[in-house]
Amino acid sequence: MRKILTILTLALLFSCQEKENMDTIVVNANVYTVDSTMSMATAFAVKDGKFVAVGDSETITDEYHSETVIDAENKPVYPGFIDAHCHFYALGLKEQHVDLVGTKSFDEVISRVINFQKEKNSDFIIGRGWDQNDWENKEFPNKEKLDSLFPNIPVVLDRIDGHAYLVNQKALTLAGITKETKVDGGEIEIVDGELTGILVDNPMGLVDKIFPETTEEVAAKALKDAEKLCFDYGLTTVNDAGLDKEIILLIDSLQKAGALDMRVYAMMSNTQKNLDYFLNRGILKTDKLNVRSVKAYADGALGSRGAALKKPYSDKHNHFGAMVTPVDQIYGLAERLSKTDFQLNTHAIGDSANVVVLRAYEKALKGEKDKRWKIEHAQVVDEADFDYFSDNIIPSVQPTHATSDMYWAEDRLGAERIKSAYAYKTLLEQSGIIALGTDFPVEYVSPFLTFHAAVARQDVEGYPEGGFQMKDALNREEALKGMTIWAAYSNFEGDEKGSIEVGKWADFIILDKDIMTVPAEDIPNLQVEKTFVGGKQVK
Question: Which one, 86, 171, 361, 444, has least CB within 10 Å?
Answer without folding.
Answer: 444
